[in-house]
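Structure first, sequence second, as always.
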């Protein structure tokens, strides 16, 4: 049996950066491109025009698919195995990066990475989640789910940045905080709550970007800032769609319905005022052109830092706290509500409440 179709299919998947379930219509187009390129190499025929035509068709199909993603498909793109992670953004955006370790209390959480860096001329304290690439690294990083010591490490480095007058940049990419017994024993909820409080009054600019998954309190633990943005195909939610479906419908099979109900996409959250900006991604997602995605994130961060440094510290804190207070202020009023006038009950003689109370307690001795 010939193995050429299998090899071609693998080549197509490799060229597309890995196929998601809604991207299957792209396979046949990429197979045609690979087959024509192989024929051109082997036979010397000039098939450049046909290859350009198929590439144009592939690009058009990508625009069609990614221009109408459902919330669940957005979740799939945010979880793509080849999507750029925190270390990739460090390599693409940063110079003079120096990692800092440990929380000075328990240990060094590999899921939370911190360090000094220089981004576009700004010296910053960079903090972010790391999911890991291969199996060994993912296990060491707890798949990006930080323990209490991770959030305490992040807060310790934020205070260090405040001391030296450095802005804080947070890159968020986690399903949530680690849900194990050890995390509960060491106070995961207290660690996240402390971060929320301290970040709200940190006397230095704070910029946060959701680069992949923004799940639950694990994301919020480093998600309070003066500017909060998310990449176009990332998501930000109080819970994962699977977790929501398991709670509401007792089965994770309803995850697509949960994703729609959670309003977790960038456009929905921008409309609700939860995020300040949605950063556009390259066509087909950040995993198809990581350099372009890194450049877009860097441009947003540098622009924010340029504008925030013009504010006095008191004005910066005032604006940050006003932003936090206004979160969730979403009301829909179709027409004024007219309440009926209260009715007076005349079937019982009106007696002052104090008199009624006195009739019940009359004759009762009160101990001294």
């Amino acid at each position: 049996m010939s193995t050429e179709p299998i090899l071609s299919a693998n080549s197509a998947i490799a060229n597309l950066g890995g196929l998601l379930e809604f991207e299957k219509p792209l396979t046949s187009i990429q197979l045609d491109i690979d087959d024509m390129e192989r024929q051109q190499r082997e036979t010397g025929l000039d098939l450049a025009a046909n290859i350009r035509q198929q590439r144009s068709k592939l690009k058009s199909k990508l625009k069609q698919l990614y221009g109408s993603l459902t919330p669940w498909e957005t979740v799939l793109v945010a979880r793509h195995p080849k999507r750029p992670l925190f270390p990739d953004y460090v390599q693409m955006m940063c110079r003079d990066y120096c990692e800092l370790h440990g929380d000075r209390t328990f240990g060094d959480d590999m899921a939370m990475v911190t360090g000094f860096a220089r981004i576009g001329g700004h010296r910053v304290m960079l903090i972010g989640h790391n999911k890991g690439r291969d199996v060994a690294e993912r296990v060491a990083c707890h798949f990006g789910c930080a323990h209490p010591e991770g959030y305490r490490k992040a807060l310790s480095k934020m205070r260090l940045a405040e001391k030296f007058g450095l802005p804080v940049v947070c890159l968020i990419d986690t399903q949530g905080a680690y849900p194990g017994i050890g995390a509960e024993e060491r106070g995961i909820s207290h660690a996240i709550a402390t971060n929320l409080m301290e970040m709200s009054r940190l006397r230095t600019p704070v910029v946060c970007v959701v680069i992949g998954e923004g799940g639950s309190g694990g994301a919020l633990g480093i998600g309070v800032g003066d500017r909060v943005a998310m990449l176009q195909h990332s998501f930000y939610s109080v819970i994962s769609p699977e977790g929501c479906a398991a709670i509401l419908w007792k089965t994770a099979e309803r995850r697509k319905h949960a994703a729609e109900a959670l309003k977790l996409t960038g456009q929905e959250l921008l409309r609700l005022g939860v995020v300040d900006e949605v950063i556009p991604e390259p066509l087909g997602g950040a995993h198809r052109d990581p350099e372009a995605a890194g450049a877009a994130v860097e441009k947003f961060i540098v622009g924010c830092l340029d504008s925030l440094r013009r504010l006095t510290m008191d004005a910066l804190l005032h604006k940050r706290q006003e932003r936090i207070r206004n979160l969730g202020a979403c009301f829909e009023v179709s027409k004024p509500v007219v309440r009926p006038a209260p009715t007076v009950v005349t079937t019982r003689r009106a007696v002052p409440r104090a008199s009624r109370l006195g009739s019940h307690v009359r004759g009762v001795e009160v101990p001294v």
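Margin note: The chain is about 50% helix and 15% strand.
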